[in-house]
Specification:
heterodimer, A: alpha/beta, six-stranded antiparallel β-sheet, six-stranded mixed β-sheet, 19 helices, B: two-stranded antiparallel sheet, 2 strands
């Protein structure tokens, strides 16, 4: 980068338009600008940084330094406006660029308002036309971060060696380490995001399902062991029980005949028991008849009583079966039921009245009832006979049956007693029944366990399905995990690369510093510049060991060390930036200045020096630099108007004008 | 006429024993011919009448055995006793006097119980069997079809 032109319009003391053509001769790269104090040297110096990156010195910002021309303000009326423009044109890699920053100032009652701030960055095409370019390109050509290194007030050059954090950062930035570190942090963030992603996806569900599957499988195995274990399993127990039962059954089968006798004995006993039960039932029925023994005994008596009543009726000793009231009613009616008129005093009336007097309703009723009951007694007696005959016959039959069964039972028991081949059948039978009971229990247990196995298998199937789903999701997680691995690997690689580069860059910078330092000032091996990992600079001497001499060194040496650092940085970074220094030699002795004038132009594409008269001994220094001077200006201020203008060349006659 | 309240029997031990022996079951299998005292009383009264034997039952010698209402629970019991009273007195008006009917029955039963006790005593299996046999014989004898 090489600045070819600075154009100021209404910039600070530079009211009106001012053009500084810095030239394009590639063999000459030094521009000298001479000015007395307070003429406008610093205003011109800072116009470059302000134009390129809107950067002002701290004291300007702190004091709200006016960037518009104060002469204008003094004469301007309220509401009047003035436009300020700073245009810096530069060449970089055979292309011409132009940066322009503008604003307007409008005067108010006793202050100003700044408006219409604007910045344009243009690139000239080969055709000669200018086109808009991006600030990104400007930042690549001359980043804001390096401004302080290449455009600086030399009075503050010691800042470069009196390290602070900003300097360290800036050095890292110049060495592109910061970009690499940004890349590293970006990768770290990417890796962190991926880590979160796959951690989120790698929820413990799959693991949980696997554990559940393991547990279920374990339970399943236990159940199967419970069921199928050849020694203790239910199925083995069942088989053993069945085998034992079969042995018992075979044993019993061998003695089938004997067993049949026992069965017959049992059957006969049951038959006898049933017959006896039937006997008891029939005896109850017989008792139901005998309890009315009086009916049977009374039969002849009631027959006799029936006859007596009949005879009494026949003899008229018993009242007719006519109700007295009926006869009384007929008499009162005066007419018999047969139609005879019953008139008082007549024979029929007397006869019926006499008949009425013989009638007794009670006796009539009781004898009538007795008659009826006697008939019932006789009928019941007859039914008693048939019932009793039937029951007695049934009883006799049952007794015969019981006798037969008893005889048979006796015979069977006799046979049983006479046999010697009958094993302990009842005992075997008990064992067999016990085994049957055991088998039933085992079958039930087997069914229970098999049901549980089915349930577990079903649950296992469900868990496997869930696990498959989780594992399918895990594939995407694996992708994230792989990305994370890549990112962290890249992060580590970058970290190592940064560390390696940092170390190499630091070492190279250190070497370059020492080389430039020797070129500028000291003989080789007199001083040695050290730059540690944090870019802290120390200076040692072989004569004083490891003691840092920087604090005790003269300002000039410190100044040169700073220059050496800047030159080394420029060389190392191939920044191709111009070195623009305000009051560059104020703290240097003549020897240092001469060395500097001799060596610095070699390290920078352009060296622009803003010189005070006091630091420039024209007769001494010009010969050293003459062959490299491209342009030279002297600034002067009109004491009347306060406006600064530039005059080409070196004009010491303008110095002291201000004081005059 | 007022209805009788209680039915009395002799308080002689052998009479009381007889009532116990012919009614009091000891097990599940029936062996006694009568279910209630009333049933034995009726049979004894009829037996006494059948054999024309009656023994007066003086107040000092008697013991109440069951209630009048218990007797009436058997619908044929009173008519049979009325028949006995009718045959004993020959007077139909006796039928209107339950006290008289019962009194006649008690005297017959007082004599008849001994007849039954002798006849129904267990000689073979038990009293139930003896009674069934006796009853069969009685019925066969009284229910003979009249000869043509």
């Amino acid at each position: 980068m090489k600045i070819t032109q600075i154009r100021l319009l209404n910039w600070c003391q530079y009211e009106g338009e001012h053009l500084f053509d810095l030239g394009t001769n590639p063999d000459r790269n030094v521009v000298l600008i001479h000015a007395d104090n307070d003429v406008g040297k610093s205003s011109l110096f800072y116009s470059i940084a302000w134009c390129l990156h809107e950067q002002q010195p701290d004291k300007w910002e702190k004091n709200n330094w006016p960037l518009y021309p104060l002469p204008w303000f003094k004469t301007a009326r309220r509401g009047e406006e003035i436009r300020t423009e700073v245009t810096v044109t530069f060449e970089h890699q055979a292309a011409l660029y132009s940066a322009q920053r503008t604003f307007k100032t409008r005067k108010t009652d006793d202050d100003v308002v700044r408006t219409d701030e604007n910045f344009t960055f243009l690139r000239q095409l080969t055709s000669g036309n200018w086109v808009q370019d991006t600030e990104t390109r400007l930042n690549r050509i001359f980043p804001k971060s390096v401004l302080g290194y290449f455009i600086f007030d030399a009075e503050k050059i010691e800042h470069f060696v009196n390290q602070n954090e900003n300097v360290q950062q800036s050095v890292r930035r110049l060495l592109n380490i910061e970009d690499a570190e940004r890349g590293f942090f970006h990768l770290e963030q990417v890796a962190s995001g991926l880590n979160k992603e796959f951690k989120a996806k790698s929820n413990s569900k799959a693991q949980e399902y696997k554990q559940q599957i393991d547990q279920t499988q374990k339970v399943l195995n236990e159940l199967r062991e419970e069921l199928d274990s050849p020694e203790k399993g239910y199925k083995a127990q069942l088989k053993l029980s069945k085998d034992n039962r079969r042995l018992i059954e075979e044993e019993l089968f061998k003695h089938k005949e004997a067993h049949a006798l026992l069965e017959e004995e049992k059957t006969t006993e049951q038959a006898i028991f049933s017959s006896r039960t039937a006997v008891a039932e029939i005896l109850k029925k017989i008792k139901g008849v005998t309890q009315s023994l009086y009916i049977a005994l009374a039969f002849p008596l009631v027959q006799k009583a029936f006859k007596v009543l009949e005879e009494k009726r026949i003899r008229g000793e018993l009242p007719k079966h006519i109700k007295r009231k009926f006869v009384v009613d007929r008499i009162e009616l005066g007419k018999c039921i047969c139609g005879t008129v019953l008139a008082p005093g007549t024979v029929p009336y007397k006869e019926i009245a006499s008949f009425r007097d013989t009638l007794s309703d009670d006796l009539s009723d009781i004898t009538q009832n007795l008659n009826n009951n006697i008939i019932q007694v006789m009928e019941k007696a007859k039914s008693q006979q048939s019932l009793l005959q039937a029951h007695m016959k049934g009883l006799a039959d049952l007794k015969v049956q019981i006798t037969e069964f008893s005889d048979r039972l006796a015979a069977v028991r006799s046979k049983i007693q006479n046999r010697h081949d009958i094993p302990d059948v009842p005992q075997l039978q008990i064992k067999k029944e016990a085994l049957e009971g055991q088998e039933a229990l085992l079958i039930r247990n087997i069914a229970v366990v098999e049901t549980r196995i089915q349930e577990k298998l079903k649950f296992l199937g469900q868990l496997n399905e869930l696990l498959k789903i989780e594992l399918r999701q895990q594939k995407t997680r694996d992708t994230a995990e792989q990305d994370w691995i890549l990112a962290t690997t890249a992060q580590d690689a970058l970290k190592n690369a940064i560390a390696s580069f940092n170390s190499k860059a630091r070492k190279y910078l250190e070497e370059q510093c020492n080389i430039v330092g020797c070129e500028l000032f000291w003989r080789k091996d007199v001083y040695k510049i050290h730059i540690d990992d944090d870019y802290v600079i120390t200076v040692t001497s072989p004569n004083t060991g490891n003691r840092n001499l920087l604090a005790g060194m003269s300002m000039g040496v410190t100044h040169i060390t700073g220059l050496a650092l800047i030159a080394a940085l420029a060389r190392q970074t191939q920044a191709q930036a111009p070195l623009i220094m305000d009051t560059p030699f104020a703290r240097l002795g003549p020897a240092h200045i001469t060395n500097t004038l001799s060596e610095c132009p070699k390290h920078f594409r352009q060296w622009i020096l803003f010189l005070q008269p006091s630091e420039w001994k024209n007769s001494d220094y010009r010969p050293v630099l003459d062959a490299r001077i491209q342009k030279e200006f002297t600034l002067r201020r009109d004491n009347m108007t306060g406006i600064t203008t530039a005059v080409m060349g070196y004009h010491p006659e303008y110095f002291g004008n201000l004081r005059k | 006429m007022p209805a009788p309240d209680k039915i009395y029997i002799s308080k002689l031990q052998e009479v009381l024993d007889a009532y116990d022996r012919f009614t009091n079951e000891q097990g599940d299998i029936p062996s006694k011919p009568f279910r209630y005292d009333r049933d034995l009383f009726l049979a004894a009264a009829v037996a006494g009448s059948l054999h024309s034997k009656s023994e007066p039952l003086l107040p000092a010698e008697r013991k109440e055995k069951f209630n009048w209402n218990t007797l009436l629970n058997d619908s044929l019991a009173l008519p049979v006793l009325q028949a006995l009273a009718l045959l004993k007195t020959g007077d139909a008006n006796t039928l209107l006097d339950d006290e008289k009917v019962v009194s006649i029955a008690e005297e017959y039963a007082n004599a008849g119980i001994h007849i039954l006790r002798q006849r129904l005593v267990d000689v073979g299996e038990d009293e139930l069997h003896e009674t069934a046999i006796y009853m069969t014989e009685v019925l066969e004898s009284v229910l003979v079809e009249p000869k043509q």
